Amino acid sequence: PPSSSISPPMEIPLPITAWSPSPSPPPSISPHAPAITTSPPPSISHHHHHLFLHMPPAQTSPSPSPFPISLPNDSPPPAPKTHSMITRLQTGSIKPNPRYIAHLTELPLEIEPKTFTQASKLSHWHNAMLEEYNALMKNNTWILVPPSPSHNIVGNKWVYRIKRKADGSIDRYKARLVAKGYTQESGIDYFETFSPVIKPTTIRIVLTLAVSHNWVVRQLDVNNAFLQGTLSEDVYMSQPQGFVNTQYPHH
Asked: What segments bear the compositional bias annotation Pro residues (predicted)?
């Protein structure tokens, strides 16, 4: 606490003078008014007295300001806390947690091409397309015929996929040649559609038998699968891009 200095008592002489009103002149007497006799007021003498005031010793202490001083604050008042958790905003720490800075994610370096122009510039994608084309030719999937104005020529495109292993590494590059079936009209080019896929019920039956008999289940990937059947309608498709026959380029 601040040190305070104490002064000795002080005696201050204050002169006090007794006051008496000055004598006023006698009132004038009207000749018609009754006479009133007045006696002069007693004379009051002036006396001087001294009054000594005993003041207590003064003690210096810091006096509080009568008005509170408020400093301007531009920030809004903090919201009342409804929980015991301390946030980074309350502590003033806006830096990110270093535990999440070291989190690494492996991004795929290989990107699947979307067009034939992109895939033809890369040797591994060109080899994948060549493998698909040779498999189609080996199975005698089509024969080259001259076009006719009455035929609806269906286009085709290459679809590229990257097959990966369980650990995320690349297994092989897959290219498929698919026909643009959406250019056909129902009732003119075809009458019904089908998809050569297996039913989920069959898969569940096979897995149930494998579990009950303790069979070892293995998975394999087939490079090319062909439906062994004869089509009842003729389908005319243009030659695949990049593998057009040089002898019959317009077939």
From this structure: 63-80
